[in-house]
Amino acid sequence: MATHAEVKSPLHETVTTTATDYWNDSCSIEELSYAIGNGAVGATSNPTIVGEVLRKEWALWEGRLGELVAESPSATEDEIAWRLIEEMAVKASALLLPVFERERGLKGRLSIQTNPKLYRDASRLVDQGVHFASLAPNMQVKVPATRAGMAAIEELTARGVSINATVCFTVPQSLAVGAAVERGLDRRGSAEGMSPVCTIMVGRLDDWLEIAARKAGTLLTPGAVSWAGIACIKRAYGIYRERGYRTRLLAAAYRNHLHWSELIGGDIVLTIPFAWQKLFNDSDIEVVPRFDDPVPAAVLEELAARVPDFARAYDPDGLAVDEFDGFGATRRTLRGFIASYQDLCAVVRDAMLPSPD
Prior knowledge:
TIM Barrel, 8-stranded parallel β-sheet, 15 helices, globular
């Protein structure tokens, strides 16, 4: 444990005095360097993040994008976009390699997301995941927690690929992920050097439930929805421990400080956007373990009684695997990821085929 003199920031204190780890929710080199300096042991990317990094670091990538176009005269804009995504991931993974080597593969990985358009195709998710894992020794492959994703997660795990389940918001999805990883590890015969994680996008669940309540004309107590994702990850965590799942839970999609402060102390990962890292590190919120603190009972009762999709998300049997793809938060997030990917392709198109107007 760190002494008071060694503590650099609230996030550094979080990771050095509790079981909680944190990742940088971006593959930006500048942002990842800041995060590593404050104790981060991983990073993640997706089409939205890659687009944001490209905009922020355009001066670093404009020339390289032009080179990629020139090097591959017959490549489509999609192919160039994926080469760009892969290069960003490999570049960021190099910063985490010392952590990966120090922790013997259990930490220090860069998560790279499979094509969001493939959420219905397990075979193609596996093929892309195996390719991604070959790019660097410390790659982690993001696979959606959809119906097809469950099969892909099991198969990739069996092949020795550390997965990060994404597009996951609910207790039933996270339990299906944990079970799929277990089947894969049993087939492989060993979990040595692997570090599977299951993301619960706590803020995106909150977003969807707020929309669902508004669409239904349901008036909720202000702030009640902000506990929904927290409640789900805390419930999933308890069941993971009961069942001995070897997957680690990860909280993502930050909307307020509860998504950090209420999760301190759990043996989980927090993947935090750079702007939120700065806010947390500049705050005076006390770093104390709160993960085992129960969610206010009145909040749980209100959400369960008045928002049907919260009950489905919170109940371990609230969703069948065949219902994962149709859940509101899943559809909203997949549509957003696909749109961001299309936006990235449009940037590549401008480099390949500049407008003459």
